[in-house]
Specification:
The protein is about 35% helix and about 20% strand. It has about 400 residues and is an alpha/beta fold. Among the domains are: about 70 residues, no CATH class; about 90 residues, no CATH class. The strands form four sheets. An eight-stranded mixed beta sheet has the order 8-7-6-9-14-11-15-13, with helices on both faces. Strands 2-3-4 form a three-stranded antiparallel beta sheet. Strands 10-16-12 form a three-stranded mixed beta sheet. The radius of gyration is 22 Å and the shape is globular.
């Protein structure tokens, strides 16, 4: 079986686009050492039959060794990589303004050797969501499940999936043409490594670049530890890595692993459902991996008011998650609830941090928005934590878009 471990984002793209040819050089697979998080890859020498191992971190030149991407060939031993079957599930409720971009991007996926099934779970839409989805992908399967619960809808998609792997992407996201191929290959190759069985691979999500100053500031803020707590939910890492959690808006699961843990817990209707699943998969002995090249564009909340409401909801969901998973508590979570009492000290510090980020990014025009975004995120999240601490979890509460 062909075995290529994910390398840097750029390297993985080259490998996906590499053409097979008899005159191309051999490159053996790179292997991730789980205990050291190191990469071993091979650099081709002048003699195609000779390959020597080289320890590499980010140096793409060591991988390519002066050869162009089209000169690279994935060396094979034994059987070639078997075709992979993937079901892609999208959950939508009144998404007529964004569903065409999402479904259209999925219909344009380039995934040679991957059998694709596309399913839309419609959560009682009253607009043209279903009509526009059909127009974007006539072969689409639509299932109606008016449950007002993302967990129920994802379980519905899981039950309907006919392939051994199930990918999920949100209706307000759009995927590049290589997205599914990247996830599918990542799943196959990482699953071939020794260690815990792989339950899922997933990637980052980023706001549309250059569309609005708000989205540009949001992208900068989220890609910092202060903005997203170092989570895959917000940060874009440049190397593959094992992670504790993968957000459900950009992920490929092993269907058997999901079925083993019972799918999504429907007590988490719309808040914390994906992290609850990640934690139960880990407890069942599975691992999760971040794949750097699998990035989707996410049209998330587009103004300060909507963003504040979303962060309030996330803070509330965090407290509900901790009730079920006490290990989800982190000492840093003690800070946001106290910020309303410490604004006199917090605001000057966050203003200076925002200025530094804007300066390093050569976007001084975003300084005020960055400072306001940090403050909105932290204070709203903290207020949500207070609400979650003293409220009963609602299994059917809808998180408004």
């Amino acid at each position: 079986m062909t075995r290529i471990t994910l390398l840097t984002r750029c390297a993985w793209t080259n490998l996906l686009e590499a053409e097979l040819g008899s005159d191309s050089i051999n490159c053996s697979y790179a292997k991730l050492h789980r205990d050291r998080r190191e990469w071993l890859c091979c650099r081709a020498t002048n003699d195609p039959a000779t390959v020597r191992a080289t320890k590499v971190s980010n140096d793409l030149d060591l991988l390519l060794s002066g050869k162009s991407a089209t000169q690279m060939r994935i060396s094979t031993t034994g059987n070639s990589l078997a075709p992979v079957g993937v079901t892609v599930v999208v959950v939508a409720h009144n998404e007529e303004s964004r569903i065409s971009d999402c479904i259209g991007s999925l219909a344009q996926q380039i995934a040679k050797g991957v059998k694709v099934e596309l399913i839309l779970i419609d959560d009682g839409s009253t607009d043209r969501t279903v009509e526009l989805a059909y127009a974007a992908a006539p072969g689409l399967t639509v299932i109606s499940n008016p449950s007002q619960s993302i967990s129920s809808n994802r379980n519905c998609g899981l039950r309907a999936a006919s392939h051994p792997y199930v990918a999920f992407i949100d209706a307000d996201c759009a995927a590049p043409t290589h997205w599914l191929a990247t996830l599918a290959r990542g799943m196959c190759e990482l699953s071939s490594l020794d260690g815990e069985p792989v339950a899922a691979v997933g990637g980052a999500n980023v706001p549309p670049a250059g569309e609005t100053p708000f989205y540009d500031a949001l992208a900068l803020m989220l890609n910092t530890r202060l903005g997203s707590r170092g989570s895959v939910q917000g940060m874009v890492f440049d190397q593959a890595r094992q992670v504790a959690h993968l957000p459900g808006l950009n992920v490929l699961y092993n269907k058997e692993a999901l079925e083993k843990v019972g799918g999504w817990d429907e007590r988490f209707a719309l808040i914390g459902e994906d992290e609850d699943l990640s934690r139960r998969l880990a407890l069942a002995g599975f691992s999760l991996f971040f794949v750097p090249e699998a990035v989707v564009v996410h049209r998330q909340r587009s103004n300060f008011r909507a963003w504040a409401k979303n962060m309030f909801t996330y803070g509330k969901g965090r407290m509900w998650l901790i009730r079920h998973h006490p290990t989800a508590f982190e000492s840093g979570l003690l800070i946001p609830p106290l910020l309303p009492l410490l604004l006199w000290a917090y605001l000057p510090v966050i203003a200076v941090i925002s200025l530094g980020l804007a300066w390093r990014s050569n976007r001084l025009d975003l300084w005020p928005r960055l400072a306001l975004l940090y403050a909105t995120t932290h204070v709203s999240y903290g207020l949500g934590q207070w609400a979650g601490l003293f409220s009963v979890q609602d299994g059917v509460q809808r998180n408004s878009a």
